[in-house]
Amino acid sequence: MKLTVNGEDREVGARDIAGLIAELGLDARKVAVERNLEIVPRSLHGSTPLADGDRIELVQFVGGG
Amino acid sequence: MDRQPPRFSDREVERYARHLVLREIGGPGQQKLKAARVLLVGAGGIGAPAALYLAAAGVGTLGLLDDDAVALSNLQRQVLYAEADLGRPKVEAAAERLGGLNSDIAVVPMPARLTPQNARELVAGWDLVIDGSDSFETRAAVGEACVAEGVTLVAAAIGRWEAQIAVLKGKPCWRCFVPEIPPDAETCVAVGVVGALAGVAGSLAALAAIRAIAEAGPDIAGEVMILDALNWRTRIVRLAADPDCTVCG
């Protein structure tokens, strides 16, 4: 399906957020995942389906102060 | 008609004139600021500018928790300190500077380090905590303590060109945002941070605190502001509560 990932249109095979993180080769412990401007809790990554046209942002956590 | 004694001195009326004319702050809001107790965890890149604005705004009691001394590499962004402060405990230099800025407020220097063991004790009794600490471990402990003590948390973090600022009241909590300490987390020491971005993040944290205390504007608890200074983009996103959260779930 077609998604917008970090501002760029992308064709992906993943069907849910956990699959997308794996497909992109990211470490789920290091990124927050936004789907259509809402951060999806990590425990729901595997059960949150993706839909055509979703806007996904993968944001690396920062912890400095 | 007003039978109440004057609430502000003439000096206070002049000092806070720009707040007092604001419909959303005014006298009642300024009184709330005066009565408020705000704890800053970390008096560094975020805590330093936040402390300056909160002191200037007339927040009545400001706690400063930090066990570091002022280093030369701090002065690139920690505008609370000057060259003459090098080597001094940050909370001591900060208390002096903030007292000079506003002698009507109380500054409580707390030269200590927050740990999971002492977090609840340190956070208890404050109305609001601004977390500008420099590690995920500390942030996790602050987040958990704020939920346990029912204290509003403004969590502000920076790295490189990015800032993330969240206002959290109970649920969702910081743990819903960061469920596990990220491995090999980048630190500002290792990867750097733009000085002015620390100023923006600290000012936004102070602004979020002032909004919350004065009850100005809509409640933004559960929202995260993500500021990408390099690409000059800002987003506000909602944080969904994690049903399996180990802290607030």
What features would you describe in this structure?
The complex is a heterodimer of chains A (65) and B (249). With 65 residues, chain A is mainly beta. Chain A contains one helix and five strands, in the order E-E-H-E-E-E. Chain A is globular and about 40 Å long. The mean pLDDT of chain A is 96. Chain B has an eight-stranded mixed beta sheet with strand order 3-2-1-4-5-6-7-8, with helices on both faces. In chain B, helix 4 packs parallel to helix 5 and helix 4 runs parallel beside helix 10 (195-214). Chain B starts with 9 loop residues before the first helix and ends in a 10-residue tail after the last strand. The mean pLDDT of chain B is 96. The chains are: A mainly beta (65), B alpha/beta (249). The interface between A and B is medium-sized, with 21 and 47 residues.
Poorly predicted regions of chain A: none
What is the number of E strands of chain B?
8
Distance between the termini of chain B: 51 Å
Query: What is the multimeric organization of the chains shown?
Result: heterodimer
Radius of gyration of chain A: 11 Å
* Portion in beta strands of chain B: 15-25%
Dominant shape of chain A = globular
Q: Cα distance, first to last residue of chain A?
A: 39 Å
Helicity of chain A, as a percent range: 10-25%
- Which strands sit side by side, in order, in the main sheet of chain A? 2-1-5-3-4
Helix tally of chain B equals 10
Q: What is the global morphology of chain B?
A: globular
Question: Which CATH first-tier class of chain B would you pick?
Answer: Alpha Beta
Q: Which structural class should the secondary elements of chain A be placed in? A: mainly beta
Mean pLDDT of chain A: 96
Fourth-tier CATH superfamily name of chain B: NAD(P)-binding Rossmann-like Domain
Give the topology string of chain A: H per helix, E per strand: EEHEEE
